[in-house]
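Would you mind writing out the residues of a protein together with its fold in token form for me to study?
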Amino acid sequence: MTDPIADYLTRLRNAIKANHRVVEVPASNLKKEITKVLFEKGYILNYKFVEEGPQGSIKIALKYDPVNKVNAIKKLIRVSTPGLRKYTGYKEMPRVLNGLGIAILSTSKGVMTDKEAVAEKIGGEVLCYIY
């Protein structure tokens, strides 16, 4: 697999379109950190790291509105790819949906959102946009 982060986002996107409650993805340290950020920002209901087999997996419970059956995640967009990396400084941080969405960055201090990176005055690789 050439782009595991794109695979992770695609599995989430497909589970949302199929109205699944839980999705299971192969684990890696970067995917675990992205999952933690999604949970902290309220885009997913819960997650669990399963340490079975050589790689392990992540079980993610998706968050839906109980009345309208609408998912908390409207769109997942992969920004930086293995063929074309996208980096940004904290002064040129991209705004996602005019501040309503989040950009997830991989920085020297770990995986964080765009707002946290600006507060700490560090830039990094823009992994994806979520809103």
In short: The helical segments are 4-17, 29-40, 114-120. The CA atoms of residues 14 and 20 lie 9 Å apart.
